[in-house]
Amino acid sequence: MPSRVYLDWNATTPLRPEARAAMLAAWELIGNPSSVHAEGREARRLVEDARAVLAAAVGALPRNVVFTSSGTEANTLALSPGLRRPSGEPARRLLVSAVEHPSVLAGGRFPPDDVGQIRVTRSGVVDLDHLRDLLAGGRPALVSIMAANNETGALQPVAEAARIVHEAGGLLHVDAIQALGKIPIEINAMGADLATFSAHKVGGPKGVGALIVAEGLTGLEPLLRGGGQELNRRAGTENVAGIAGFGAVMKAALQTLSEDAERMTSLRDRLANGIRAIAGATIFSDEVERLPNTVLFTARGLKAETAVIGFDLEGIAVSSGSACSSGKVQPSHVLSAMGYDPVVAQGAVRLSLGWSTEPDDINRALEAWRKLGNTLLRA
């Protein structure tokens, strides 16, 4: 029996060997990283080494990295009323793009009445004119725009949005979780005041995230209170092994970033062209710059749930979009925000690649789609 093909890397990635090795070594340590004895200092060293690696990878200072339990926690921590620059006013409302991850659309700790949505274009890119209109004459705002969409792969104009936001006296949060390890990330070039990341999207362990806070930003209220861990920004004993895995995987991912991106782009384009040639399939956000690994498609009459099951039976792991809906296949809020009707939004299937995806994996995925297209769309 042929091995299975994993094409759901945007949901989670296989654990890189470097992360596994770092975690196994960390599990041998007995010290609490907040203890002052030698055992505690050894555990602390692993945490601080990983903090330095992540900070260097995205152009930040280590003291501004806050480790969390997940990207969702990092996003919720970031979306805090009252954030401010030293010379600015505190943020009193939140504006999020309509295609954000559910953890951002939930609004963090802002009251629902203080949360607004920024429109996106038919291509799934933030409408910067609408952002300007929303910011004009209003209270200072925290704006949240993701670096790359987890469903379509569309890259967002984050740097341009940052200029608009800052000119209006606001702050910008960037959910860079899907972009990390796939494209270069430099938070100062993006103009981000806050940025969030997650280890398991880049080959690290599940259950570890990070928030990076710009130098001088104040007003960040902890979600978890108690001890003084993470410079009083997140109480609780750190997940030493998970954090060590995060640091190790960042080193590995950055070493081959350009090479992996080039190879994945070539495979992505061959996959997209092959899918499009069957049953008149549509590739979403195909006309804008996308992540090098993501293809979201549909065809007339396709039902995502049936297609995902069909691919699975053919030995191909794919998804219908975000993996944060408790296993339920639901209409894509991203496609709805892009102006597609519910029937189309219910038929979208996402294939996402990674560093170990091989040309034969693409061949098998296309063969599976030929079979499914001939059966599902004919029914």
Automatic annotation (TrEMBL):
GO terms for molecular function: cysteine desulfurase activity; iron-sulfur cluster binding; metal ion binding. The keyword Iron applies. This is Cysteine desulfurase. Residues 5-364 form the Aminotransferase class V domain. SUPFAM superfamilies: PLP-dependent transferases. Catalyzes the removal of elemental sulfur atoms from cysteine to produce alanine. Seems to participate in the biosynthesis of the nitrogenase metalloclusters by providing the inorganic sulfur required for the Fe-S core formation. Its cofactor is pyridoxal 5'-phosphate. Belongs to the class-V pyridoxal-phosphate-dependent aminotransferase family. NifS/IscS subfamily. The keyword Thylakoid does not apply. It comes from the Bacteria. InterPro entries: Aminotrans_V_dom (IPR000192), Cysteine_dSase (IPR016454), PyrdxlP-dep_Trfase (IPR015424), PyrdxlP-dep_Trfase_major (IPR015421), PyrdxlP-dep_Trfase_small (IPR015422). It holds the Pfam family Aminotran_5. It catalyses: (sulfur carrier)-H + L-cysteine = (sulfur carrier)-SH + L-alanine. Keywords: Iron, Iron-sulfur, Metal-binding, Pyridoxal phosphate, Transferase.
